[in-house]
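Mods, move this if it's the wrong board.
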Amino acid sequence: MSEEEIHERLTRVHGIGEWSVQMFLMSRLGRPDVLPAHDYGIRKGFQRVYGHKDVPKPQAILEHGERWRPYRSIASWYLWRALEEKQTKPQRKPKARKISAAR
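Not the wrong board. Structure tokens:
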């Protein structure tokens, strides 16, 4: 079945929406070209990876995501993974200590 047919059939079931269908397509059916742009984790990951000040709108992610076609599912996994990485502060170099001549 095409992704559109799957989406149409599954969303007929009360409680199953677009996000649920996208997760099913990616995780269970292994579809390589799904970009759940409304997912908050995707939006936050995109913000972190691309250094945006604010969380981007789904439409901005969809537009940028066209360059990842036909592997947008893989890009999605990387965006989620980017959130798992802890942000570390740049480490300062230790100050040089003076060594006294008298010992």
